Amino acid sequence: MAMATALLILLLATPAAVLAVDYTVGDTSGWTQGVDYTTWVSGKTFSVGDVLVFVYGGNHKVDEVNKSGYDSCSTSNPIQSFSDGNTRINLTTSGVKYFTCPTAGHCSSGMKLAVTVTGTPNTPSGTPPTTPSGTPPSGSNTPSTNTSPPPPPPSNNGAGNTNNLMFVTISVALGVMFAFMG
Ligand SMILES: [Cu+2]
Questions:
Q1: In angstroms, what is the span from residue 105 Cα to ligand 1's centroid?
Q2: Total domain count, the chain
Q3: 55 contacts: CB under 8 Å, gap ≥ 6
């Protein structure tokens, strides 16, 4: 029973883990100039466990900055700096995360991103987890009007006794089945 419960919990927990979302910043445009990242962010919900993926060419970089760095497009004090062209930022904490491109003029022309991360991991919306049902599948109930099987004849032969018991059991099962159908 403990095993079954563990399996059930695993099954219920798995979809939540799968729902962690990778967000490619700017979608197909990627991390570049000429994309309005305020528009890109709007309508999206970012949760702890999600990932921001920055895809960009060699003349761009990704700096994670604080709010003042974001507001002023300052490149002097980044929290983290990346230039590998394919940067995955794991959103591990809630709060607002700020990113800019430190290449001269890029941030001030709009290459900046502010993402609000909510504290709870993504859960399926509108679909509450299914609870295990206590009722057995229909049709498994045996009719209560059946006569109980006759006791097997006593026998000193162990093998014969087992065979008789099997025969009686099968006969009764068939009888019950036909009675039930007919
Ligand atoms: Cu840039």
A1: 8
A2: 2
A3: 24, 25, 26, 30, 31, 85, 86
